[in-house]
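Long-time lurker. I teach an intro course on protein structure, and each term I like to show students one example going from raw sequence to a predicted 3D structure in token notation. This year I'd like something fresh instead of my usual example. Would anyone be willing to generate the tokens for the chain below so I can use it in lecture? Attribution to the forum is fine with me.
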Amino acid sequence: MADFTLYCQQFSPLEEVILQELVQQTTTKTYNKGEFLLRSGETCKYLYFINEGLIKSFSEKNDKEFIMRFFSENVLFSVFDSYVTQTPSKFNLVALEDTIVTLIRYETMEALCKQHHAMETFFRKLVSVATTKMMKRISEMLEENATDRYRLFVEENNAIHQRISLGDMAKYLGITQQSLSRIRTIR
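-- Reply from a regular --
Happy to contribute to a lecture. Here you go:
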């Protein structure tokens, strides 16, 4: 199981008193496989840290699903555009496995950032890393072919790629399952 406090310290060092204040204001929740953490149209009110499990972020249009990201253990994430602006999300978050998360409410993070400069720095770094990863994802979709996108995903996500269904992997890559099968046999 992942360690929330260790993650926080590695991500951005926090004084023990600030870290304890943060931990005291978190809650832990279990989601069953297939259960939504967030539905499109709802406002994202949490930062999520995955202790155990796997989550996908996706949107839907005309009965077609577009998978943006997968999140697994030891990751702190959110649907940041909805979270930061407190407006309805265009994305869904759903558990792909039974999943245990630590939740940090929006109001809690706002209050801690106002109280402690170190928390504000922590949050800024978190959003910066998320932005960088999103730009990388967009760049891959625009500049790489499906074979290279698959190869990069497997290299960077070796620990989780076997836990993702072929259908979800194909949607993530923006290709059909048949094309994914061909890519996997060539590889």
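Some talking points for your students: The helical segments are 4-11, 16-24, 80-85, 106-115, 117-143, 146-156, 166-173, 177-186. The beta strands are 27-31, 36-38, 46-52, 54-61, 64-72, 76-77, 92-95, 99-105.
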